[in-house]
Amino acid sequence: MKVSIITVTYNSAQTLARTMDSIARQTYPDIEHIIVDGLSTDGTSEIIKQHQDKVAYFVSEPDRGIYDAINKGLDKATGDIIGLLNSDDVLADNRVIEHIVKRFQHKRCDVVYGNLIYQSQYPEKNKVFRHWKSNYFDPKCLKYGWMPPHPTLYCRKKVYDEVGHFDTHFRISADYDFVLRVFSNLDYKKSYLPAVLVRMSIGGVSNGSLKNIICKTKEDYQVLKKNHIGSIFTIVCKNVRKLMQFIR
């Protein structure tokens, strides 16, 4: 089974090499790494070109935001399984993709997801700020704000073909929208892999500022209405779940 991993970049020169190395070091051999860059100006493209042998496809051109860039990557993906890895995140260890593929094979599932930790931007300090521990899926949990960590989510290509790409009308919450579309479809078999799959650097678009937090809350509500799932109560539960991830 071929695995496509899509990385979207914009001025990621300080972190991208670490992300690329975490994919290149995987024990699983059949990985297609796709990088879509938003016309960076900080040397990101040069770093990618220096490691061109590790990349199956690379383009650097203007886009209409993160999710537009991801959709471009999805259009190029040829793998049986597709996942995303942010340009400042890393796979938790060298066998992550191997374990994910085995789960698809043994469980004959359509979707695999796991746990994620938020760590310092300087991984050598090994400081964990937040542990997003997911759980086994129950359809009822969606109205209580449950969602898996999106960077740990791997889907068969047919899921993307059937559910569709990311809705670029949402600037921040398109990942939540995609998750609801996938997990509300009970025809897809989901499998929880109870392990940390991704180490994410603290920060990010959704919680980078008060303005973005407010924007995300509004978009989350729009996503719930679009998918006919939950209410304001769901958003409250979703935020409480997030706070609980800080309790060690």
Describe the structure.
The protein is α/β, with parallel strands linked by helices. It has 8 helices and 9 strands. Strands 1, 2, 3, 4, 5, 6, 7, 8 and 9 form a 9-stranded mixed sheet that branches.
Would you tell me the overall average pLDDT?
93
* Structure summary, number of beta strands: 9
Principal-axis shape equals globular
Low-pLDDT ranges: none
CATH class: Alpha Beta
Q: Helix amount, in percent?
A: 25-40%
What is the level-2 CATH architecture name? Alpha-Beta Complex
Q: State Rg.
A: 17 Å
- Give the number of domains: 1
State the helix count.
8
Distance between the termini: 37 Å
CATH topology annotation: Spore Coat Polysaccharide Biosynthesis Protein SpsA, Chain A
Strand and helix order: EHEHEHEEHEEEHHEHH
Largest sheet: 9 strands, mixed
User: Superfamily at the CATH H level?
Assistant: Spore Coat Polysaccharide Biosynthesis Protein SpsA, Chain A
List keywords for this structure.
single chain, 248 residues, alpha/beta, Spore Coat Polysaccharide Biosynthesis Protein SpsA, Chain A, 9-stranded mixed beta sheet
Summarize the structure.
The chain is an alpha/beta fold and 248 residues long. 35% of the residues lie in helices and 21% in strands.
Helices and strands, with pairings:
Elements: E1 3-9, H1 16-24, E2 31-37, H2 44-50, E3 57-60, H3 66-76, E4 81-84, E5 90-91, H4 96-107, E6 111-119, E7 128-132, E8 154-156, H5 157-163, H6 174-183, E9 190-201, H7 210-227, H8 232-244
Helix pairs in contact: 6-7
